[in-house]
User: Which sequence fits this backbone?
């Protein structure tokens, strides 16, 4: 089987996902098209070299509907021959899309394929696509679904993380993101977004608060207490987790991922394609894994996915130099580090979604790109990128610098 | 015109028919087999015969419009799910649909503008279940402005859903939220609320509903009419469907709330939510078909059958006096002497006065006797404050209770109930003093919970008049009454107990005079099992939630706190003393002693127990200090293991009371456990539960638990014998297990069922796999 290499990765800065966010006026079509356009142009290769594009998008309705990827390919000036698919694996969509692109290269279907994702959460709000999972009683009663925030609080309760633990983690995320920006660690992959006139509208992640401290976070009320207590979700969770006496609600807007707009693209190709086009591979895909896990606690999939990817690669968790786990909720990362015995010093070294936001369909591709940059900058060899996923799933990809 | 036996039809000069329902041989109008035959036939005639221009449906009875379906008819349902069953199940829905469409198809209505003849319904009394569903199939509902008119869909209370269009027409009139509230709770609406929710259209003075209904029909004869949902562009009020944000939000929360409340033990709740979700996205014609399919699927699950049997058929039979001796004239009880004005005595006085009887409440001093008045006043004040009772009625209620310390005041009572201190000498004293005053044929009942009735009766000059009436605390809320005749109790005393009970409307069971009667033979082993698990290092939260998730109303540790560990400890000590060498230790002796005497955790009343409490007695949380004495095991058992131990700690002693004849029949054990102990009602009671998993599986699991945890789980020989003979407790051949039933069962039970079918399943297999194998084995057995 062929090997898949990462040739380039770009991402937009993440704009606050509200009506006053800088990217709110930019359509998801434009966000996707701008990153799609940038990659071949940066590498100075013909867009026709990209045979297929997979983009993650979690609310694929309205202006994100009808296979946004294909629409964006045409908008970005690709030849009509380039195909497009829209991928939805909830929060893992962006990484799933790059894994699909990698798999297409590995299987020999494509010489070059693009992965990535787009989400304008300010324009197409979360949940816009409805879904049987939360509304159809047959699904809700069979799987005991609860909102993710309840799952995150359940993780914290079950595995013993306090409000101080999660808040301290959040403070560190902002600190690291601030430092990463200050030192220009994202420079290689950031693609400033342009408006209708072609003028730059956002060049930096918009939600980082360098001054965030324990005191500021301590003032925030837990976000999911009312939902859990008044709408029965805590009792639903306890149907499956009877060992929990009461769920301790500790997550809030300050220690959960931010709602933002953004897009990312990652170009994958075979070794021979790179040689033919005279472009240098930056990293190799070592292994990939997607798994299902218990859907009520929902967000403990990363450790299972990581273990599977490690096993496929014949590696141990200690063989990984850098870990990147999407900061959906602070407790998710704390639990992963606890379960996998991973030191915070090599986890999310440049901050994460608590500081910079989580544009659902794009995040996986964004943090994969972050790891490509960081391996080069820090002169490290291997990185494991993973995300927790709605409905009880997990995804992981291991890469190696070349 | 055909002759109908269940209603009369009169057509007036305008061609408007008045259909008055009067179902013979039924206490109230119900949908029985006769009406099921008549109604569709008349509807066919009405829509096709031009003589009829419109219709008013009313009741020919004073007591109600219609009380719903005859559950005895539904109990006969086979549970088979096939096309024929569906066609038969659609009878009523098709008839109702025909009535509201005038027999026109959706296409004829939409494309050709066809309309229906107007149908209005006049509601002077209650309309429940199928009665309300019939009313909803009319185009216009007029209700009398009267507290007699109560509207509701109570099917969920016996594990069913309203299968006559109720789950479809209510949300289309009232919106999803009101519909879910009405249908999943089974509660009634009064006229005003029903009007506010669009469930009725007009309120008039009592006695004028037919007139008003006729007027509306007359106005619509010319134009014809349609239900709102048959008019183009109709939208469910508040929205419906998975793309409507409001509906999505509603279902996300309502599903969770229904799940949290039902703990997923009631298939009807889920089926109702599914009917609301799926049905409101369809045309009415399709929607009632889906509703019928869900309705029929509930009969394929033992939950509905068990609930109907115990909570309706057997409960009603018991309350009507199934256990009352034949041939004894009704004994009129107008005045009752209640001895002792403590918690129990006051409660008994309260329910007796509530039933309209006079009460003489006697205690040692006038001041003590006054406590029964205070007890009732507290309850009544609350009702008055909430507007549920007038001050005059409350005053009259209290006037029926006469507190006294003078035994002479008991001289003209018809019944004595003693609830004095649980000491034989104290009881002997009041028996003597009372019998000196009361009439010779007055029945003397004791509310003792620990002393043998026969022993107390030895103090009586007239032991044939002596009987036990065991109430539960708080008396006004707890629905069970144990009636305990001792060996010498006469038939008249037993009859009197039933006649008194009919007035206070408890659910009675007759129990033999043995220690603990029924409930206190079953309850202690259950709470002991929970305590034992705590001492083994099982997480107390896991124990509590496992019980709650199984459908118990309260965790075993919380209920132990409520009844107090002190009480358990005292009973244990006195039993030890009494039985001497014959005492069989429960294994909790040392633990109880520690809790009560060393750690100051004697129960809620004492401020601490398994839980911590604040000063007002509010439960705060489980006592963390327990882990210092009994460290939590690293390998906690699964929820299933905990549930199995708790469940079998209830099942085995229940089965023993049945096997030993402590209760006369399985019905009594089922009723006693549900209404006395809070045994999960979805099971139909412990005996129904055993029948549902099969006596063989029960015996096999009890044996396994006995081996693992102790002889207390050993099943009684009688059930062992039944298992060998392949018998069921309620008679008849064992039924095949359905997927829904197997899914709901404890995995250990499922494994034993599989083993019984010759499948080599174990707890290590996936439960879903074992279930699949059982279904497959049953299928091939049936085919062979």
Assistant:
């Amino acid at each position: 089987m062929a090997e898949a290499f990462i040739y380039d990765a770009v991402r937009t800065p993440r704009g606050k996902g509200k009506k006053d966010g800088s990217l709110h006026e930019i359509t998801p079509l434009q966000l996707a098209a701008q990153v799609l356009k940038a990659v071949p142009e940066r590498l100075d290769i013909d867009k026709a070299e990209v045979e297929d594009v997979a983009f993650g998008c979690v609310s694929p309705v309205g202006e994100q509907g009808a296979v946004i990827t294909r629409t964006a390919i045409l908008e970005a000036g690709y030849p009509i021959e380039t195909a497009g698919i829209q991928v939805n694996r909830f929060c893992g969509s962006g990484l799933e899309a790059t894994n699909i692109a990698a798999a297409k290269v590995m299987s020999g279907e494509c010489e070059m394929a693009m992965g990535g994702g787009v989400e304008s959460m300010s324009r197409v709000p979360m949940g816009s696509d409805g879904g049987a999972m939360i509304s159809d009683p047959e699904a809700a009663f069979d799987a005991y679904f609860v909102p993710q925030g309840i799952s995150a609080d359940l993780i914290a309760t079950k595995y013993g993380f306090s409000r101080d633990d999660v808040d301290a983690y959040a403070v560190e995320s902002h600190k690291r993101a601030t430092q990463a920006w200050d030192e220009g660690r994202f420079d290689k992959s950031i693609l400033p977004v342009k408006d209708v006139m072609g003028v730059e509208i956002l060049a930096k992640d918009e939600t980082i608060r360098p001054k965030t401290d324990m005191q500021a976070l301590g003032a925030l009320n837990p976000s999911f207490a009312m939902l859990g207590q008044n709408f029965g979700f805590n009792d639903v969770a306890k149907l499956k987790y009877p060992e929990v006496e009461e769920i301790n609600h500790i997550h809030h807007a300050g220690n959960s991922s931010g709602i933002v707009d953004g897009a990312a693209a990652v170009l994958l190709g075979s070794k021979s394609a790179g040689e033919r086009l005279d472009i240098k591979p930056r990293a190799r895909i070592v292994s990939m894994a997607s798994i299902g896990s218990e859907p009520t606690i929902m967000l403990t999939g990363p450790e299972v996915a990581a273990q599977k990817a490690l096993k496929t690669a014949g590696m141990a968790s200690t063989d990984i130099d850098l870990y990147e786990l999407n900061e959906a909720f602070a407790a998710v990362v704390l639990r992963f580090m606890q379960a996998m015995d991973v030191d915070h010093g090599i986890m999310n070294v440049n901050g994460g979604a608590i500081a910079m936001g989580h544009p659902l369909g794009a995040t996986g591709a964004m943090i994969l790109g972050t790891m490509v940059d960081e391996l080069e900058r820090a002169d490290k060899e291997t990185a494991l990128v993973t995300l927790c996923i709605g409905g009880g799933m997990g995804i992981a990809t291991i890469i190696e610098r070349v | 015109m055909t002759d109908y036996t269940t209603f009369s039809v009169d057509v007036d000069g305008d061609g408007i028919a008045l259909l008055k329902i009067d179902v013979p041989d039924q206490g109230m109008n119900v949908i029985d087999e006769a009406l099921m035959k008549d109604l569709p036939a008349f509807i066919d005639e009405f829509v096709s015969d031009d003589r009829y221009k419109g219709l008013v449906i009313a009741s020919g009875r004073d007591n109600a419009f219609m009380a719903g379906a005859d559950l005895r008819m539904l109990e006969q349902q086979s549970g088979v799910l096939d096309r024929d069953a569906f066609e038969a199940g659609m009878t009523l829905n098709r008839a109702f649909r025909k009535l509201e469409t005038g027999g026109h198809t959706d296409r004829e209505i939409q494309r050709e503008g066809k309309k229906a003849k107007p149908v209005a319904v006049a509601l002077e009394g209650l309309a429940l279940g199928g009665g309300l569903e019939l009313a909803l199939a009319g185009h216009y509902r007029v209700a009398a402005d009267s507290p007699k008119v109560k509207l509701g869909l109570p099917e969920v209370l016996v594990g069913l859903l309203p299968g006559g269009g109720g789950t479809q027409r209510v949300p289309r009139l009232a919106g999803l939220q009101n519909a879910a509230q009405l249908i999943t709770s089974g509660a009634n609406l009064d006229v005003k609320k029903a009007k506010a929710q669009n469930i009725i259209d007009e309120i008039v003075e009592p006695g004028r509903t037919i007139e008003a209904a006729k007027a509306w029909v007359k106005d619509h004869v010319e134009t014809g009419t349609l239900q709102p949902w048959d008019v183009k562009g109709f939208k469910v009020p508040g929205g419906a469907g998975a793309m409507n944000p409001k509906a999505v939000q509603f279902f996300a929360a309502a599903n969770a709330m229904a799940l949290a409340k039902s703990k997923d033990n009631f298939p009807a709740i889920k089926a109702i939510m599914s009917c609301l979700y799926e049905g409101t996205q369809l045309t009415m014609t399709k929607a009632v078909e889906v509703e019928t399919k869900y309705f029929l699927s509930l009969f394929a699950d033992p939950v509905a059958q068990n609930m109907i049997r115990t909570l309706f058929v057997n409960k009603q039979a018991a309350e009507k006096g199934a256990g009352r001796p034949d041939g004894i004239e009704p004994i009129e009880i107008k005045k009752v002497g209640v001895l002792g004005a403590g918690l129990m005595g006051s409660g008994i006085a309260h329910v007796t006065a509530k039933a309209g009887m006079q009460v003489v409440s006697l205690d040692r001093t006038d001041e003590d006797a006054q406590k029964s008045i205070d007890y009732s006043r507290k309850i009544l004040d609350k009702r008055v404050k909430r507007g549920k009772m007038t001050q005059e009625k409350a005053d009259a209620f209290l006037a029926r209770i006469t507190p006294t310390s003078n035994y002479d005041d008991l001289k003209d009572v018809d019944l004595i109930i003693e609830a004095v201190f649980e000491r034989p000498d104290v009881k002997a004293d009041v028996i003597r003093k009372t019998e000196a005053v009361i009439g010779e044929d007055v029945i003397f009942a004791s509310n003792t919970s620990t002393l043998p009735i026969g022993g107390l009766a030895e103090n009586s000059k007239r032991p044939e008049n002596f009987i036990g009436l065991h109430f539960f605390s708080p008396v006004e809320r707890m629905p069970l009454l144990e009636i305990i005749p001792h060996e010498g109790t006469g038939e008249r005393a037993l009859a009197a107990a039933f006649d008194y009970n009919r007035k206070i409307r408890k659910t009675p069971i007759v129990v033999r005079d043995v220690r603990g009667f029924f409930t206190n033979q079953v309850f202690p082993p259950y709470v002991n099992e929970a305590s034992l698990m705590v001492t083994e290092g099982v997480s107390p939260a896991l124990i509590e939630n496992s019980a709650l998730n199984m459908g118990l109303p309260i965790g075993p540790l919380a209920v132990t706190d409520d009844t107090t560990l002190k009480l358990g400890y005292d009973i244990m000590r006195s039993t030890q003393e009494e039985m001497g060498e014959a005492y069989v230790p429960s294994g909790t002796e040392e633990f109880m002693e520690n809790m009560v005497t060393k750690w100051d955790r004697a129960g809620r009343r004492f401020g601490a127990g398994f839980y911590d409490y604040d000063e007002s007695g509010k439960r705060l949380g489980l006592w963390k200090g327990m882990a210092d004495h009994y460290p939590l095991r690293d390998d906690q058992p699964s929820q299933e293991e905990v549930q199995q131990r708790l469940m079998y700690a209830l099942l085995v002693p229940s089965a023993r009371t049945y096997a030993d004849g402590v209760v006369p029949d399985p019905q009594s054990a089922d009723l006693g456990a549900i209404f006395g102990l809070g045994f999960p009602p979805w099971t139909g009671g412990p005996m129904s539960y055993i029948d549902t998993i099969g006596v063989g599986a029960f015996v096999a699991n009890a044996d396994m638990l006995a081996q693992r945890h102790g002889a207390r789980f050993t099943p009684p020989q009688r059930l062992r014998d039944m298992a060998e003979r392949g018998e069921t407790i309620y008679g008849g051949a064992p039924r095949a297990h359905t997927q829904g039933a197997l899914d709901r069962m404890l995995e250990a039970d499922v494994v034993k069922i599989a083993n019984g079918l010759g499948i080599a399943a174990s707890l290590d297999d996936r439960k879903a796999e074992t279930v699949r194998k059982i279904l497959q084995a049953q299928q091939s057995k049936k085919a062979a």
Summary: The interface with chain A takes residues 241-245, 247-248, 251-253, 255-261, 263-264, 270, 273-274, 276-278, 539-542, 544-546, 548-549, 621-622, 636, 639, 642 of chain B (CB under 8 Å). The domain at 7-300 of chain B is CATH 3.90.226.10 (2-enoyl-CoA Hydratase; Chain A, domain 1). The first strand of chain B starts at residue 7 and ends at 11.
